[in-house]
## 1
Amino acid sequence: MRTFECHCCQPPTRLFFDNTRCTVCHAEVGWCPVCSSVTALIPQGVDYRCANPACGATLVKCFNYAHHDVCNRLLTPADAARYHGLCDCCRHNTVIPDLSIEGHRERWAALEAAKRRLFYTLDLMGLPHPAPQDGVALPLRFAFMADALPDAGLWRSAEGSDKVYTGHAEGLITINLKEADDVERERLRVDLNEPLRTLIGHFRHEIGHYYWDLLVKGQDEAACRAVFGDHDTPTYAEALERYYAEGPMPDWRERHVSAYATMHPWEDFAETFSLYEDVVSVLDTAGDLGLTRAAPESGIDAMILAFQRVGMGLNELNREMGLLDVVPVIITPAIRDKLAYVHDLVIRAATAPRG
């Protein structure tokens, strides 16, 4: 993730991806889709002008920025009319939390912050993410739902409600709102032995399932099967039952990104896709900080090498502070081959003509 500059300040103040206000000049800031940067906003009547002197675009706040303060993105007046005032991230939502319940807005804001980082990485990778309003066969949609209500710091089932399962189905990514509760998510992380159970981790995993449907299903299944295994045998339901009854094989680290990746080839693909997103995003941030120059065009082996070098440094810094490893995965030759498949798939999708 890059950092940005507030052009209202001299010298310019550094702005970060999630900022909504400059801490020095106190100007409102937000993501400008025209110059692809976080920039100060200059009010001009009912809308705003991008303060980046190289841009100066006329912008309006996303509805969820202006009315709910869970977003920091803007859009052009033309897109505001086309997408009912919703930015390129928020227009994908089909269900949002019940905002009459205390704490739901704050948890929704945390989910949206993670989703914005997801979209930044997808754009960095050059992947399509059509919205429901675009009239395509498999639009990307999100549902943020709760099956529980906070009660004295705990979670209990809401009377008469069904349990919400985080997952993906036919372009719809559903995330249970309790994943935005830090205490509950940490409990589940420990119970399920998932070192990287984070909000952004959920988004990156589930979007992997979406891109399997969009880029692999009916198009590249034979090549995917050769790398990840037969996704038709056993069935997903059979694999799921076996995994929770028996757990992963003892040597799973030799061939899989995580224990959960051993459950079924679809989960192996999604977990590997998530790791690939980790690699791209970490290298983007490290590159902005001058720590590495590796990028997707460098090839997968150069990317992995740079990621491992940066990851080793981050892990050691975290250990000095008593924190968890940022990069807990050891990339074996088998995992490298899976990452190479995902890399090639992404490059093909990014360079394919779009009509």
## 2
Amino acid sequence: MMNDNNDKQLVNNVAVVGIGLIGGSMALALKEKNIAGKIYGVDANSSHCEKAMALGLVDEIQTMEEAIRLSDVIILAVPVNIADALLPRILQLSEGKVVMDVGSTKNAICQSAATSVNSHRFVATHPMWGTEFSGPEAAVTGAFVNKAVVICDKKNSAPDAVSLVESIYKRLGMHILFMDSVSHDVHTAYISHISHISSFALANTVLEKEKEDENIFELASGGFESTVRLAKSNIDTWVPVFKQNKENVLDVLNEHIAQLKKFKSCLEKENFEYLGELIQNANKIKRILK
């Protein structure tokens, strides 16, 4: 199944279940990096299937059952709630194969995998990349190069399955981090999930207060646009993420609200010295994010 030579394919065939932003970009990368001979696409949305074929993201559209039968690796790239529901069935059909997911919550799907006798064939992963766009047309060439990917609960997966998944991500140009699924969900709540909530809330604030669409369009600077761009993200992706990671998201949201109250208090009390200290403290992020 596996070949470590960078000039040769790692596997014969791959099934990508869910041909949207991540699944489509993954399919493109698998072809570009000569990782798989043939890419089978699976998607419940017939429009997605048609677009994926038209854009050359996949070689063939198949039913999930047939795609699994034909493939060595199955990549689950659907919203996290759907992934949890599909995984036991996929594992049942894929004995001896490798199943991996690319969702942004990990504890729930690891628990779902644990219900299967083939749970050791599953590798939980989270490529730390995405955009605010969705669907097959949002797929991007070279999306994963120089990005991080987290592999969770490695000890629960068969060594050969983990090794193959590592080889795939290395071929994609990603650097690999290992983490337990519970810790992953805590950290992504702070690094990723709160950013989306903040963007949704900011967009709603502007839409509520600025009634003229033209003013928003004409006056919005690069700073505002980059801050609010995540508000264009897909509801079908993010509501399940917030639901699955509710406790961690609530924890970070409470801290975020506390920080906002500090800024509000400074302005109300005209305590501009402390306001400056808050901003100066925030500047420390430059040490981490170059």
## 3
Amino acid sequence: MAFFSTLGQQFVATLPLFILILLGYIAVKLGRWQKTVTDSLTKFTFYIAFPIMLFQIMSHFSEHSEIDMKLLFVFFGSSFIVFALGCLIAYKCFHLNGSESTMFAMGGIYTNTVFVGIPIIKMLLGDSAIPIVAIIVIFNALILWMLATVSIEFVQMGKLSSKGFIKAFKNVTKNPIIIGIFAGIAVNYTGITLPKFIQQSTKMVSDMTAPLSLIVLGMGLAEYQIRNKLHITATICMIKLAILPIVTFVTGKLLGLPVLELQVIVLLSSVSIAINCYMMARQFEVLQGPIASSLLISTALSSITTPLILSIMLQFGLT
């Protein structure tokens, strides 16, 4: 009974986040808003709101306790393990070719760290956990885009080139979210004191970013449909929402990761697939239907699985 009580509390705590996603979804589906509305709000959130929020938090980076950098090894090491497992499942169980197996496996590890991960972590674990997420965000796009690019390039061409590495690195350095993080760290460690009116403005934007991002995510999801090959979609969701968090947790415990870092990366691993994964599928023209379906289904299911995973960790003292 105590476990179900904890689960209920965690579900109620995260429910407002998924209601905001549903609100954005319904607004587009029933309101018949033009796609330009979604595109404009998404652009504002990604290019202005999120960078300002991360700048505001990271400018106070030193106020938080020291972060154990083993979390990078745990998070991405677990991702690589599950990626290899996903490729094997895709090839052995579904008889997918090399490019399809790569995208299948990528769907099982590409976490929506920004639009879902940050709001959930912010609500459940507080601002002190956001710098940990920021460290993950810095490396997430670079490492995963590079992994997919190199894997598909090797499958299609039988060789590797430096172009994929260079292109991925350039894209990351231009990413406004990465710029916001590094700008905040720079302000923090140089000891610059920002004028009060700037601090107040960034705080106001920071407070509105999480709910806005969830509404925008829901609006974006309204563009996708549940399509065929649902057996592939279901397996991708199972890998992403269950297997990846389990592998991440076991790896973190084996390496003695501190409690807060462990909670953050396990919760990040448990949230839905990133929209960037669908963009990747479109770029490579591989498994676009199953990945789009996985976006919708994993977002809906994570409203249950993420609170469940946190409840298990808290109730059974696994952290």
